Amino acid sequence: MIGNRFAPAAQPLLLKGAKPLGFGDKSTSDAPIDIMIGKDDRIAEVSQRIEAGGDVRVVEAKGAFVSPGWTDLHVHVWYGGTDISLKPEQCGAARGVTTMVDAGSAGEANFHGLREFIIEPARENIYAFLNLGSIGLVACNRVSELIDMRSIDIDRTIAAVEANRDVIVGLKVRASAVITGGWDLAPVKLAKKLCRILKLPLMVHVGEPPPLYDDVLGVLTEGDIVTHCFNGKAGGSILEDEDLYRLAEQAAARGIVLDVGHGGASFSFDVAKAALSRGLKPQTISTDLHNRSLDGSVWDMATTMSKLLSLGMKLDDVVAASTTAPRRAIRLPAENLLEVGKPAEFTLFDVVDSDLTVKDSQGATSRLTRLFEPRYAVIGAEPVTAHRHVPAEGSAGGHACPHCGWKS
């Protein structure tokens, strides 16, 4: 556990009457349980009924679900270090998210700042994919991090990973003509080579070609991650290209992780619905939250999860894709998370009836009749009251970059 690691809890915490969901075969959503968490931030007892002592803080779940902590595999939280990043508290525990993975905001030249000023002080657990480009997303899409080989320092990138293996979980490369111009597949191949050396997964942003989404899939191997897998961009959508759709199916079958990575320009209701109707599910659900998508089409993790639920994913699958699956993708423990002695990291939430109109990244609307509503994020023995993000009035159309119009 990275977050909340400097101060032990003042008192034990008892979660009463929560319905477990997403913990595997040993859990059932029909029988509420109590969970005692000790001052050491680890699970002390799990039972159908636990009596609280005088020094125990009690959170009454009142039949809410308890799952492994929601884990957002793609966010941007290098606040102050890039012009798109949010503060962790804008998309973390207050939204039900206990673990976040910053997806390439920092490169080797500025990762030390992300670690010192964001990762280490945060109460959430924060990890990072290191950008292949040395400067990361300092001036996102105004100054490309991958202009040519002068943008990459192989030795320093390897050294940064080796010095920070406790928090760097892989490399990130943006494979899009908006970023790399005509450099095509070369950055992806180089990033993959470094990942083989470092024995880490590669996360690839797929967008406007070149390179082709098809060719990117050919470079990747088991454990690598394609984010924005259901984007609706011309030339990069699996809906408009049957050959690409089959390649995506084959990639998923050989262990490549298809990640939603909603973002301001990278998720299509039509593409996702078509893929789900044909049995192609995303392995992980993530938001790609940043300051141009927060009040635009994304809002938060709960709303993104609700969108996938509305498009046909089963409740259990949505929860798994938002908890244990992203943990596995970054090689964190994902089994037996309710066992005594394990670090406590949970999200308490309800699934409520709703009538909420939302948008995808292309501006298409959809109505949500069932909605994930986070109640608490539990990190160790600290319960953080949580609720969905309410976007600023008049901002639902999204915030494009004033310089280039980009909303990734």
TrEMBL record:
One of its GO terms (molecular function) is metal ion binding. This is Dihydroorotase. It comes from Mesorhizobium alhagi CCNWXJ12-2. Zn(2+) 2 binds at K172, H205, H228. InterPro entries: Amidohydro-rel, Deacetylase_Atu3266-like, Metal-dep_hydrolase_composite, Metal_Hydrolase. Signal peptide: none annotated. It comes from the Bacteria. Residues 65-355 form the Amidohydrolase-related domain. The modification N6-carboxylysine is found at K172. Keywords: Hydrolase, Metal-binding, Zinc. Its EC number is 3.5.2.3. The record marks R174 as: Transition state stabilizer. Pfam families: Amidohydro_1. Gene3D superfamilies: Metal-dependent hydrolases, Urease, subunit C, domain 1. Zn(2+) 1 binds at H74, H76, K172, D288. The keyword Heme does not apply.
